Amino acid sequence: MIGRRPRLSALLRGAGIEPRAVVGPDPEIRGTGLDSRRIESGGLFFALRGLKADGLDYVPEAVERGASAVVSESPRPDWLESEVTWVQVDEPRRAAGLLAREYHERPDLALTLVGITGTNGKTTVAHLVESIAVNAGRRAGRIGTVGYAFGEIEGASDRTTPEAPDFYRLLAEMREESIDLVSMEVSSHALAMHRVEGARFATAAFLNLGSDHLDFHESEEAYFEAKAKLFAALEESQWAVVPAEGDYANRIRERTRAQVLSFGRSEAADVRLRDEYCGIDGSRAVLETPSGSLPVRTFLPGRFNLDNVAAAAACALAVGLATDAIAAGVLALQVVPGRVERVDRGQPFTVLVDYAHTEQALRNLLSWVGELTSGRVRVVFGCGGDRDKGKRPAMGRAAAESGAEICLTSDNPRGEDPEQIIEEIHQGVIGVPGGVERCSKIADRRAAIRTAIDAAQVDDTVIIAGKGHETTQTIGNLIAPFDDREVVAEALEGLGWRARRRGA
Prior knowledge:
Blueprint: H1 8-15, E1 21-23, E2 31-33, E3 43-46, H2 59-64, E4 69-72, E5 85-88, H3 92-103, E6 112-117, H4 122-135, E7 140-144, E8 147-150, E9 153-155, H5 164-176, E10 181-185, H6 188-192, E11 203-206, H7 214-217, H8 220-232, E12 239-243, H9 247-255, E13 259-264, E14 271-279, E15 282-289, E16 292-298, H10 303-318, H11 323-332, E17 341-342, E18 350-354, H12 359-372, E19 377-381, H13 391-401, E20 405-408, H14 418-430, E21 439-441, H15 445-455, E22 461-465, E23 472-475, E24 478-481, H16 484-494
Parallel strand pairs: 2-3, 3-4, 4-5, 6-10, 6-11, 7-10, 11-12, 12-13, 13-14, 18-22, 19-20, 19-22, 20-21
Antiparallel strand pairs: 1-5, 7-8, 8-9, 14-15, 15-16, 17-18, 23-24
Helix pairs in contact: 1-3, 3-5, 4-10, 4-11, 8-9, 12-13, 13-14, 15-16
């Protein structure tokens, strides 16, 4: 994209945007963005209204940095003295997606995009699809919660699905590196806020729907509707991968024009799990597929990870990847960062770090671990501040009902009082017989983890849940380094356990 300088009018025309008004000349555009701090000379700045800030407030900075045009829902403000061109549109977020796509010359059309949405499992399925594609000989990339990767390039991400200018820039970079398949997580926020507007997905997968992000969507129905947008946009030649059973899966089927490939355990599933075995060190099963029976083995433990394997296999089949590559790709993926990730220093008990931060994810994790643990299950978790408060007591109830020893602690409290968040989680514990007796509260997350490790006995399993792959903790305005895996390792080594690499 170096040197690309289309005229603003050409971008608007190519993207199919009909502005309410355009005030100013027809400048060359040399980039797109909605972060005023990153706008460069000739940039097209999207002044979008966010949850906590209005992009109009950042127009002066964008102009000072050299923006040649601004796209906004508002008319050109009287206080703006610059000659920067002002484009007023009815749907600025949608316009941002379409204009970013057009600026980068529609990179999605050169790639096989596999979009994955759902409350739980997106990251694991995205990693599995990428691994299968690589084993099929494809040049594959990945975009998601733990970052992006393609070729020899890896980078961190501050959100599950990048904002539209970053998303299309990333796809353009992948195209330049001859990547031909991209496995990516598509969040409900991204769909509601048009971050992937215009993108052509070869396959889209719906995994599940639980209670989450209701602070943003306000209702579970609105949450579902956001995810359903991904499937409503699919065409007849494309594929929708959905669970074989469930009301939401059935509603997805009704919304899409795409061909449907289902996964699950019922006889109706196109990709069906049978002969399952789940252990702490991994799982195995047989997949019955339209191409025949396929034995699979995975290092990823838990029944829910076999669900993820089946979903990934269905995605792979939908985009035409070889059946043999499915088994090889599933086996090749040894760990997904922060997803049931084992920390082993030779101790006689198991420690797992997981991203489970919803009621259903925590309930599934505790249920599976409880079945395989001969000792006690101990779980340390909290809930994020300035996020969906309704799930706090539900998560407390899920933990208490599992029979585990519970330690409530801080997650990322952000602008809230950590002690208050813990009390709201504790309200769910109170209603479960015996829950209070098994529950402790330690607001300091490092101290909570160390306490759980210190208390662990032979054959116990300790679960550190909620933050998974995250490497920082946000308390107020402070973002401090904090990695659950490192804190666990320090606690184990403090008890004298030596480092030991996990074997194949």
